[in-house]
Amino acid sequence: MFSVCDKASGLFVGHGVVVPSPVSLPLCYCIEFVEGPGRPGLGPQRVPGSHTLHYLFMCASEPDIGLPLFEALGYVDDQLFVSYNRESRRAEARAPWIGSRTSSRLWLQLSQSLKGWEHMFIVDFWTIMDNHNHNKEPHTLQVILGCKVQEDNSTRGFWKYGYDGQDHLDFCPETLDWRAAEPAAHATKLEWEEHKIREKQIKAYLEKDCPEQLQRFLELGRGVLDQSVPPSVKVTHHVAPAATMLQCQALNFYPQNITMRWLKDKQPLDVKESGWKDVLPNGDGTYQGWVALSVPLGEEQRYTCQVEHAGLDQPLTATWEPSPSNALVIGITSGTTVCVIIFFTGILFRTLRKKQASRGAMRDYVLAGCE
């Protein structure tokens, strides 16, 4: 066991790990787990009036090349503003407002801090792999950590580890210990809890340094981060054998929070009937969302999509409107169907008439023979 403070880099070294010193930390990292069907997801969810500063760290082991691959993505609220990887080893601006308004000193501090986090999490990665006896096969580590500041100025911190796509360890600031999400994580949990120096630094960082730096970035992004972009909404139509699929799309909106629901005869559907939905980033800072619903064929006009968003003065509604080409196709299809029915009806009618005539002639022939 050893404890050394590297004053030049601001790193605290202890228990075989490297932790950035709280005094030198200029940044805060925060992200939340968002569970999805069948798999865990990652992404911040901003409550109106609240703000987050969050980082996602990803490591991937490659036994053939030695050091693990490493990448970091930084977000203010749900806007990507910085990236970092092991090849460049420097912070790279991913949003215009951060590149044009940030001083060179702050950007240098950001790069130095990301280098420190890289060192720390690679060592943690090795520790976790050793405790799993994983030394040969490729593995992955994800770290999400930081803080959220609520509208009433209360704060909440996060520091979570995921290993090979599964929840692994979750830091508890109140008790200064780690919650193991799976049995295999207990060895690492006990190792990290042997001394509380690391945990006290993490707690101080999440509760003090992170909210202060979040406020600093919010000031830099003023006029951009607080600007709402309303969605454009449309409803599309897809015909299936036994039903019709209606899909409502909300395009190019910001911030991420949006409410999309289906109405039937102007009344909200029950939650169980509301259909499938998702919200995805466009890559340019805006988002797109969709909600789909299966409806009986011919009842499409009874359903309306309603969208609520911070960029809209009032809820926006949209229904599926058949295009002229669709109407023409429907008309042709209906006309063809009617013609086919008439054609076969005529053939059937003529066949029955012929049979009746044949039976009449046969009856006349039999009667003549009897006489």
TrEMBL record:
Instruction: Show the GO MF annotations.
Output: transferrin receptor binding
- Pfam families listed in its UniProt record: C1-set, MHC_I
Bilayer-spanning residue ranges? 327-349
Topology relative to the membrane: Single-pass type I membrane protein
> Which InterPro entries does this chain map to?
Ig-like_dom, Ig-like_dom_sf, Ig-like_fold, Ig/MHC_CS, Ig_C1-set, MHC_class-I_related, MHC_I-like_Ag-recog, MHC_I-like_Ag-recog_sf
Ranges for the Ig-like domain?
A: 231-319
Subcellular location per UniProt equals: Cell membrane; Endosome
Tell me which stretches of the chain form a coiled coil: none
**Main localization, broad class:** membrane
Q: SMART domains from the entry?
A: IGc1
**GO CC annotation:** endosome; external side of plasma membrane; extracellular space
Biological-process GO terms, alphabetical: adaptive immune response; iron ion transport; regulation of iron ion transport; response to iron ion starvation
Q: Which UniProt keywords apply?
A: Adaptive immunity, Cell membrane, Disulfide bond, Endosome, Glycoprotein, Immunity, Immunoglobulin domain, Ion transport, Iron, Iron transport, Membrane, Signal, Transmembrane, Transmembrane helix, Transport
The family line of this record is:
Belongs to the MHC class I family.
Q: How does it assemble?
A: Binds TFR through the extracellular domain in a pH-dependent manner.
Give the protein's recorded name.
Hereditary hemochromatosis protein like protein
Q: Which organism is it from?
A: Fukomys damarensis (Damaraland mole rat)
